[in-house]
TrEMBL record:
PROSITE patterns: IG_LIKE
Ig-like domain location: 33-125, 158-266, 277-374, 405-534
Provenance organism: Phalacrocorax carbo (Great cormorant)
The name this protein goes by in its record: Prostaglandin F2 receptor negative regulator
A GO term from the CC aspect: membrane
SUPFAM superfamilies in the record: Immunoglobulin (SSF48726)
Record Gene3D superfamilies: Immunoglobulins
Compartments where found: Membrane
PANTHER family: PROSTAGLANDIN F2 RECEPTOR NEGATIVE REGULATOR, V-SET AND TRANSMEMBRANE DOMAIN-CONTAINING PROTEIN
InterPro entries assigned to the protein according to its UniProt record, in alphabetical order: Ig-like_dom, Ig-like_dom_sf, Ig-like_fold, Ig_sub, Ig_V-set, IgSF_V-set/TM_domain
Length: 686
């Protein structure tokens, strides 16, 4: 480098620039017959970005021109033929770098190679060429495989083990290392399986890391420089052509590893035959009666030979389209023939290929779809097992028919109303019951249907129903009256349910029927309805006629004078009224000249249906006890007025109300009646 000498060395390096041409540090050791690539690059230059390069060769002292990037006449006569045939060429890798490529290098190519760059700098600074020594050694690498295995395919079943061997040795005069890689051809490309590198490390290929860590692929060295690939359990991806790829490496002058050659040999072609497995349930669709046993057999067939163990799992599903994750595992038999535990279900190995599922004491909930899954396991070299194939049978439909108890239902009325507010009582009885063991219980539902004069269809209304635990559920029609105690639902006996209406109203007239439901207890102690039997209907009806009430008033003394006692009776008769009672009111119609009562009618005294007397508008304080009203008999009442006065003149009547018993001990007003008038006239009674 041209620098001013007054500068220090560090100042010169910082301020002065110069072209630098670089080639690898030699010597470069290469094997005869291989392709040699020598790179050359330039940096820290002026001028155009794309630089030119010249290559020369020297065996001893003089250099012979080989090839140039810019001068086609540069090549000496000695190299023109090789350059013309492309055996020697330049390959530009960038604007400032090229590679000298020598195909099929020979011992005569051993020597010094110089790379030069013509100057494009403003001033000449730096180095414009660089040399590297190339040493050509003999080919001492030999790679071979088993000829027998190479010539014929190796046919294996899935899960079988296999081993492949190749031999690799070198007699190189240099201290070289071998890198051995086992490869498989997938399609048109070779894929690395496992390598033993030139640095003595095992390196699994892409996708084989887990299998290598699990011991499922191994590479071992043996006598006579052999390298053995071991696959203890083959899978479907292991089918293909196998080769042994060996490369030879040497450590360069810069201590880096350099690959100097590579050879391969195809060792074997491996065909992996997948294990065939058929899983079939021997029957198609099955119907079984409740409490009986369900018997299904799963038959498995495989072409597998040698040592293997089957595994069988029985599944249940409510739908044929359910996946295994949605289905319920019933029982399983693992590869050690250990059966999972169950009380009512058993799984047995009937013969070599048959596995029997027995479900005892089935109930309706066992209806659904049953299917069988089987797998084949093969042993691995280190004592574990591997599943090579798994199949699932088509589902079999199983219908469990419920055991229906046999019984009849009879509905009768123990009390029927003849009038409104009479009680009604209906009894719903179970008769002729058969097959009603402890696992059967009965409940009742009550219904009402209105009667219409026309042929219109009337939908029945639910009054009440019982669920399986005898909880009463009320319908809209009866809810309020039942809560008030007006309607009572009860179970009179084991076989009898009753409906009682305390006070039947006209709106209750119609048809009644009951439904007895039989419930069956399942294995999980739940109750499921198995049968309904409906009774004949009972009609609740009575003819309604208009109430009639007649009241006759009779004056007991035809003539009397002021100061005497006035006495009259009222006799009552009625029709179409149930056990009537009467209340009586005595009224008086005074002449219009009587200013004390401008309305004309006075309420004097009353007697209610419970015989309680009450003074109404009687205001004469001097005669507080002057009027009396009493019941003579059920339909006859007597009125007395003592010490009559002129002011008592008028028309007297009995106002009678008929009452019938109503709900809850109350009385209901039925009809009113008015008697004929009885006159008090002192002028005429003189």
């Amino acid at each position: 480098v041209n620098c001013v000498f007054s500068f220090s060395l560090s100042s010169c390096l910082a301020l002065c620039r110069g072209r630098v041409v670089r080639v690898p540090k030699g010597p470069l050791i290469r094997v005869v017959g291989t392709e040699v690539v020598i790179p050359c690059s330039v940096s820290d230059y002026d001028g155009p970005s794309e630089q030119n390069f010249d290559w020369e060769f020297s065996r001893e002292t003089d250099f012979v021109r080989i090839v140039s990037t810019w001068d086609s006449t540069f090549t000496s006569e000695e190299y023109q033929k090789r350059v013309g045939h492309g055996d020697i060429k330049l390959r530009r890798s960038s604007n400032d770098a090229v590679e000298l490529v020598i195909r099929n290098i020979q011992p005569t190519d051993q020597g010094r190679y110089k790379c030069s760059t013509p100057s494009t700098d403003a001033t000449v600074q730096g180095n414009y060429d660089a040399e590297v020594q190339v040493k050509v050694i003999s080919d001492g690498l030999s790679v071979s495989g088993s000829k027998a295995r190479s010539s014929m395919p190796l046919r294996l079943s899935e899960g079988d083990s296999f081993k492949l061997r190749c031999s690799a040795i070198t007699t190189s005069p240099e201290h070289t290392h071998l890198h051995v890689t086992w490869q498989i051809k997938s399609g048109s490309t070779w894929q690395d399986i496992l390598s033993l590198t030139h640095e003595g490390k095992f390196q699994p290929g892409p996708g084989y890391e887990e299998r290598y860590s699990n011991g499922e692929i191994r590479l071992d060295t043996g006598a006579n420089d052999t390298y053995r690939l071991s696959v203890p359990q083959a899978s479907s991806v292991d089918g293909g052509a196998y080769r042994c790829l060996v490369s030879e490496w040497v450590r360069g002058a810069d201590s880096s590893w350099q690959k100097i050659q590579e050879k391969s040999v195809e060792v074997a072609s491996v065909a992996i035959q997948q294990t065939a497995l058929d899983v079939v349930i021997s029957t198609s669709n099955v119907s079984v009666t409740e409490r009986d046993s369900l018997d299904l057999t799963c038959n498995i067939t495989t072409d597998r030979s040698g040592i293997f163990q089957p595994e069988v799992i029985w599944y249940f599903s409510a739908s044929p389209d359910d996946t295994l994750s949605d289905a319920q595992v019933l029982l399983s038999m693992d590869l050690d023939s250990v059966v999972s535990d169950s009380t009512l279900i058993s799984l047995s190995h009937v013969d070599k290929n048959s596995y029997r599922l027995l479900v005892r004491d089935v109930d309706v909930e066992d209806s659904g779809y049953y299917f069988c899954q089987a797998a084949v396991w093969v042993p691995l070299h280190y004592g574990s097992w591997h599943k090579v194939v798994e199949r699932t049978s088509a589902p079999v439909s199983v219908v469990v028919t419920a055991l229906e108890p046999d019984y009849e239902v009879f509905l009768n009325a123990s009390q029927t109303p003849k009038f409104s507010d009479d009680p009604t009582e209906l009894n719903c009885r179970i008769t002729n019951a058969q097959d009603t063991e402890a696992n059967i219980r009965f409940t009742v539902s009550w219904y009402y249907r209105q009667r219409l004069p026309s042929d219109d269809v009337v939908t029945e209304e639910l009054l009440a129903t019982m669920d399986a635990d005898w909880t009463l559920l009320l319908g809209d029609r009866s809810r309020e009256r039942t809560q008030n105690g007006e309607i009572i639902f009860s179970k009179r006996a084991v076989d009898t349910f009753s409906l009682r209406i305390q006070w039947t109203s006209e709106s209750d007239r119609g048809d009644y029927f009951c439904v007895i439901s039989a419930w069956t207890r399942h294995r999980n102690n739940s109750w499921v309805k198995s049968k309904d039997v409906t009774s004949a209907s009972v009609s609740i009806f009575w003819a309604t006629q208009d109430y009639t009430l007649t009241v006759e008033a009779v004056k007991l003394k035809p003539f009397f004078v002021a100061g005497h006692t006035f006495e009259m009776t009222c006799k009552v008769s009625s029709k179409n009224i149930k056990t009537p009672r009467y209340s009586v009111l005595i009224t008086a119609e005074k002449p219009l000249t009587d200013q004390s009562n401008p309305n004309g009618t006075t309420r004097i005294i009353s007697l209610n249906q419970d015989s309680v007397v009450r003074l109404e508008d009687w205001t004469d304080q001097t005669r507080v006890d002057g009027v009396v009203l009493e019941k003579v008999q059920e339909n006859e009442f007597r009125y007395r007025m003592y010490q009559t006065q002129i002011s008592d003149a008028g028309l007297y009547r009995c106002v009678v109300t008929a009452w019938s018993p109503g709900g809850g001990g109350m009385w209901r007003e039925a009809v009113n009646g008015l008697s004929n008038p009885i006159q008090i006239d002192f002028q005429t009674s003189g």
